[in-house]
Write a structure and sequence with these properties.
Elements (H helix, E strand, L loop, with lengths): L4 H23 L4 E5 L7 H8 L10 E5 L2 H9 L5 E4 L1 H8 L4 E8 L4 E5 L13 E4 L5 H12 L8 E4 L3 H9 L5 E5 L2 H6 L4 E5 H4 L5 E6 H6 L1 H20 L4 H9 L4 H11 L11 H10 L15 H11 L2
Parallel strand pairs: 1-2, 1-3, 6-7, 6-8
Antiparallel strand pairs: 3-10, 4-10, 5-8, 5-9
Helix pairs in contact: 2-10, 10-14, 11-12
Length: about 325
């Protein structure tokens, strides 16, 4: 079967990206690349650690690069990047035979929120109505299904519509094309001012790690000291982010492109509890993430995650 034009373009982009990274690595002392899908409050503590020079203090030159899941998996499989922040797609790839491990979570609960138009005050009222998500079958879709099921609403009682980008979901909500939409903090702050209602924050009802650090097993074997230093830097970033509230709004405002410091303060307060102090997901949370990633329930969790390195990083911080 011949590949579609879109698929061919994807492969060409991946090939060119990996070639550029390979040349850079050969010519210079390359920084450690960590794949980030998009700017999001989920990895704000990592951003703080970078801005505060916490990785440099550990002798690590960390550089985030924006990659979608398919590209980042191809890059880590070929050793072109060292770290991935997404969790779901690497779990799926692990079941398929790619030797990856989740070694830390820096977002133990989702930052997504279900926002409804004025007049809708409960999930039960969504029966027979239209709810926008990004794409069918994705993480946000599964989150919506889970919170509906918890409330006693069958997902098939709701008309779930994939609209792609966040701006499309917001526009559809504003013009009345949909009755509710799965969005993320801080978009709830903008829409609440217009009279829309934040029905459910996923973080309040589901224990579900959304982002963290994933590495190839070869790196765990060959570069254990580097891995521990990276995790130490992230843990320091989380600790600093959660204990220096007054310093965070300007950083968060610039990071997320918010319109005011007041909005940044509100966003920070709503995001703060998604970042775990110890970098470890509970067994329940990890299993939920695995279920969303369509990992068979019989698949061993220790084949998906390895917390020994983040435990070692935490111990090194306590020793100081």
């Amino acid at each position: 079967m011949n590949a579609s034009p879109n698929a061919l373009r994807t492969y060409v982009i991946i090939f060119l990206l990996l070639s550029i990274l390979s040349v850079s690595h050969a010519q210079t002392s390359s920084p450690l690349h960590i794949a980030i899908p998009t700017n999001s409050g989920t990895w704000f503590p990592l951003h703080v650690a970078l801005k505060k020079g916490m990785f440099r203090e550990l002798g690590i030159d960390m550089l985030p690069i924006y990659m979608q899941a398919r590209t980042s998996l191809a890059a880590i499989a070929s050793n072109q990047i060292g770290y991935i922040t997404q969790i779901g797609s690497p779990m799926t790839a692990t079941v398929g035979g790619l030797p990856l491990r989740v070694i830390m979570v820096f977002c133990e609960r989702s930052h997504h929120v279900l926002i409804a138009r004025p007049g809708i005050i409960s999930l039960a009222q969504l029966r027979g109505r239209v709810v926008a998500i990004s794409q069918p079958g994705g993480t946000v879709h599964r989150e919506l299904q889970l919170i509906l099921e918890q409330s006693g609403v069958e997902p098939n009682e709701v008309n779930i519509r994939g609209l792609g980008s966040t701006p499309s979901g917001i526009a559809a909500l504003r013009n009345g094309a949909v009755d509710a939409a799965m969005l993320s903090i801080p978009y709830d702050l903008y829409l609440e001012r217009e009279g829309f209602r934040s029905l459910v924050y996923v973080k309040d009802v589901l224990e579900f790690p959304l982002a963290g650090i994933v590495v190839h097993n070869d790196r765990l074997r060959d570069r254990p000291d580097e891995v521990t230093k990276v995790l130490t830097g992230v843990l320091r970033g989380i600790r600093y982010t959660k204990t220096n509230r007054e310093e965070m709004p300007p950083l968060l405002k610039d990071f997320l492109g918010l319109e005011s410091l007041d909005m940044a303060k509100k966003a920070y307060d709503r995001l703060r509890d998604i970042w775990p102090d110890n970098g470890i997901a509970s067994e329940k949370g990890l299993r939920t993430a695995a279920t969303v990633a369509q990992v068979p329930p019989t698949f061993p969790l220790d084949k998906l995650a390895n917390w020994s390195f983040v435990n070692k990083a935490a111990a090194s911080l306590k020793a100081k």
